[in-house]
Specification:
Length: 399
Amino acid sequence: MGLSDGTVVGATKIVDHGSDSARWNVVLVAEGYKSSELPQFHTDAQNFVNTLFATAPYDTLQGAINVHRLDVSSTDSGADNPVSCGGSGNVATYFDAQFTASICRLLTVNDTNVINAVTANVPAWNVILVLVNTTVYGGSGGAVATFSMAPSAMEIGLHELGHTAFGLADEYEYWAGCGESGHDNHPAVEPSQPNVTIDDNRMTIKWGTLISSITPMPTTANADCTQCDPQADPLPPGTVGAFEGAHYYHCAAYRPQYLCRMRALNNPYCAVCRRRIVETLTPFLPPKTIFKEIKDAKAEKMEKFEKLEWKEFKEVKLELKELEKVIVEIPKLKDAEGDPWLDPGIYERLARIEASVERLAHFITQEERPNVARGALAGEPKAAANRAAPTKPGSSRKR
Ligand SMILES: [Zn+2]
């Protein structure tokens, strides 16, 4: 039930993008893993890293992030799980992980003990995620984030990271369940978090710059405040507006998009959440390195594509032109004082171009020009065969 129930083995830096003093340091901590199960923790931690770096907007911010793993062994496996939640009671684990009897999905640990252990091993930590070795669904995002190794573990981790690292609110519109009482109308107090609001006025709402002038406001209204709003998304997916039902209340609170990872797992972060993440992590990007990397990698790619001289090249030519423009623009954004120079908008544009170039590379390699591609793209394993099959329309064309 505590510090006598295991041992802190030590920390390992598993993603090294530079000095800890200059990067945003994520620490993944083992809880409820017996000594013999630590190799499983290493796999679980690596899975989380892989998921993180494949998820927007972290995918384009990788250079800002270091990841450390803190191996901690416990006497027993798992977490305390009350019998009322269907569990079998208490186990002996180092950080005393436990599911909460009143809300079974709420998984907490002894935050102070976690923070002390991490501070002793990775003093420059920025955010701590505790991986709890149980397949029972649960997580929480407070001073430290926790998530269990349930089937949807990695998604829970990304959601809790949203709370702990970026101060994002839950966008879902219930507390214990949709039919509950006491959660009809949100109190008339503006929440501090960036992704929920009681304000449905497009002139004053905090994410107003992301709302198109043709989007109705509020975008949806809940006709029955005693329940969650059952209506389907009336607008194209991804539309930003003010959707009623958020922050644990059926009415009088709004979320920015119909869906978001902070509302329900297995959805992308909404535009407001992405913006917050980009703003937070951009200052940790290595300016010179990242600029040089982008410039070198893209220049090399463009040169190779130029040589291909194939019909579809024309289709990406505009995107490559846009890329050249971005490369010219980036250095100009840096002012004489060295103030933040990397406009998040530039990063989104780069990400779009990167995706197009990679889809094209994959297309060339897999379907179109196998011989040319092998030569032209040699040394670019990332861009070609190792990528998952493309799913966007333009890349699955057959000739
Ligand atoms: Zn949440």
